Amino acid sequence: MIIKKVCLKNFRVHKDREFEFKPGINLLLGKNGTGKSSIFEALSVAFFSKSPRGTLNSIITNDGSKKAQIKVEFIASDGKEYVLEKSIGQSKSSLYSKDGSLKYEGKEDISEYIKTIVGINEEVFNKVIYTYQNQLTDIFSKTPAERKQLFDRLFETDVYREISDKLFKVQQSYEKDLEVNKVELEKIKLELESEEFADLEERIKSHEEKLEEVKNEIENLRAEVQNLRKRQKSLEDIIESYKRIKKDLQMLGKEKEHLNSKLDDLNKRLEDAKKAKDIVEKTKKGYEMYLELEKEVRRLNTNQKELQGKKREKETLQDKRNELEKSKSVLESQISSLKEKKVEIEKRIAEKAEKISDLKKEIFKLDEYLKNLLYDQSKLSAEIEEFNKRYEDLGKLKVELQHKHLKISEEEKLSFNRKLLEDEISRLMQQIEEVKKNISYEDQLVQDLANLRARLENIKNVSRELSSGMCPILKEECKNVKEKGGFEVYIVEKEKIEEEISELEESLKKLRNFKKEKEELEKILKEKEIELSNINLKLEEIEREKESIKSIENILKTQNYEDMEKIKKEYEGKYLSLVKQISATKERKNSIEKEHEKYLREIVEEDEKLKDINEKISLFNESFEKTSKELEQVEKSLVLYGDIEKDMESTMNSIEEKQKEMDKLRKDFDMYKKFEKEAQMLEDILEEIKDTKKKIEESQKSASILEKELEKIHNIEEIESEKDNLVVDIDKRNEKLSELSQQVGKLEETVKFLIKERERKKRLENEKRELESKRNFLEEKKKLTKEFREKLRDLGMKVSHRISDEISNLSTVNYNIMTGKVEMIEFSAENDYEVILKNFKESVERTFSMLSGGEQVSVAIAIRAALSKILSKSDFYILDEPTINLDVERKKLLAENIEKLFEDVKQVFIITHDEEFSHMAENIIRL
């Protein structure tokens, strides 16, 4: 990935800045607090929505701004050019390619796509590629547990542990399931071995046989009961027949009496009917004449009603004619009134139109005058703006001049401090040279100490072999030992060497103290050099300020700054006068325009009134025409009705004459109506008398037949006695059947229960087989899960070891290039990623905490460069203050070899206040 440009607005110290970068080494030079690190903090915020230095809201500048903006232009690993924009305070993000082929919005989508096209995640960026100043060595100084957790996550080997932990939970769940299975299996086995299931089949067979015997007995009894019931039914039928015949004879006797009584009654009604028929025949003619008259009266009444309806219609038309004549008169009056109002309104509109024309002319004159005033104002404003700009620029120069005088007032103090620092640095360098001389003896002392230890070891070996005074090879007394004065000579020499070794070790301890002293002195020297460098920079700046002061004083003198205040007041007076004239003209114009608008509104209102009147006149004219036509139609309709009153009087006279004739025939009509129905019944009565006589004969025949049947049933008492005995026998057998049925019910319940128990036993046996099968399955699953966990854990360790070995080799090469020392860095996953620096020549191993500050920084840079190469596909790296804690020699060595260290990286950013790196940078940005 190549970062091309970063634009920042309201981000930390950057109000509105733009930074362009190039492939290769980009150097960002500047003092602390100038915002160098903030540029790369912005990359983390843009790419991953996270700041390594705190919350996102804390990065907005403290000048009242509500949002910060970041814009990053970069070339991704896919070769495409992208633009990433992010707003903090509004939570807006967008990523789009410059060719317009795609666009993403929303921080989640962008972060995911960034990982794809850049090849890194947020943790690799903030822990490996970029580390904030003074945090370069932090990840290597953590506790073992913290280191392991961090690097496992960076190497993505923590996934093996996480899966292994999840599988352990699965394994535990299988173990719990096996425990549950065991309990359930034991429970089923105990249940199957219980007495409930003992001799179950024999018990079922025995009960089923007993049930069959009882059922057969029931069938036999039911057959007996059925035969007895048949005999009982036969006897009951005979008894019922006897009773029915007796009852039928009684009914026939009563029916005969009823028919004789009815016959007498019919003979009486026959006489009455004959008399009624004579009366009807006599009054028939009068009855028919009455009906004809009644029909004629109804017709005349109908005609009378129709004539009354027409009379009412005529009266309605007469009322309507009167109303229409009144309406016509009112409409004529209203139309005349509206025409008078119309003339008045048209007169008022003409007067107001004339006033509007006068006002328009005056407005035009005021517009022209106002245009001239505004032109004068614009011209004066331009002059004032130009004057104010010059005045403001000179004012700024005057303030700047005061600041510059204030700055150069520190020159004497800074010069004095520089002299003190130069003396202090000279003294420190002398002390360091003296300490170096003492340290230079260390190599000789180490060699002498090694020789003495070798001699001591040799004497110890010889002492052991010759302690008896015998030669170990010849197996005889050793002459050399004897000639030298015996075995005691070796003891004396051993003690002497041990004493010399003790003295040398003490000297080496002192020399190591000199090393610590040297490191402390170098650290103080570095701080003093930085302080001196800062003072020199300030003094150089003061010299430049002196030159700047002369230039500013010349400008102020040339421009006559003091006289400009008077000119400014004159301009303000002119401008104020123009503003007042413009204001007065605008007020006059507004007043006239309001009056103009008022007359326009009034004309509109009068037009509306005129329109309303015209509409009303039109409507009234239409109504007048309509009313006239309607009145004409009513007059025509009234002619059609003629003299309807005379017709009504003639019809009424006819009705009265017919009513008189009907009154004369009323007696015959009433007598006919009274006896008409009774006369009509004569034939019916004769027919009914004939039918009744026939029924009396049939009743007598039926009674004779029934009496003969009754004589056949002579032993009724014996039959009833036999029936009663049969009822008793049936009841006894039913009681026996009830007892046997209860016994069957109990036996069936028992058999059902036993069959259910047999089914339950089968279910339990099936459950047992299923549980045993499930147990075998769970044990196999548990075994496979355990094996998979162990292999997964081993795989995670192998991956971690392989990556850490690769990093160890690569970081060792980096360290040797940076320092020129032949030492090895061990970065082992087996030791929780503890960093160990090994010197094979001196057989010395030192952990990261034992290294000096400079060594820690060098080792950290070497490992971080290796981590970046292995973990990132982005091909870029950021070093923030990499020379911290490095002595002058190491600093130069790092600067000389930084290109070699990152020769395979497309883009490197170095953030520093040190000029050492200037010579190799392709791009230098000074802040």
Automatic annotation (TrEMBL):
Species assigned in the record: Thermosipho africanus (strain TCF52B)
Protein name: Exonuclease sbcc, putative
Coiled coil segments of this chain: 175-462, 487-616, 641-794
Pfam families reported in the protein's UniProt record: AAA_23
UniProtKB keywords: Coiled coil, Exonuclease, Hydrolase, Nuclease
GO biological process: double-strand break repair
Domain of life: Bacteria
Statement: the UniProt record of this protein carries the keyword Transmembrane helix: no
InterPro entries for the chain: P-loop_NTPase, Rad50/SbcC_AAA
Single Gene Ontology MF annotation: exonuclease activity
Domain Rad50/SbcC-type AAA: 6-244
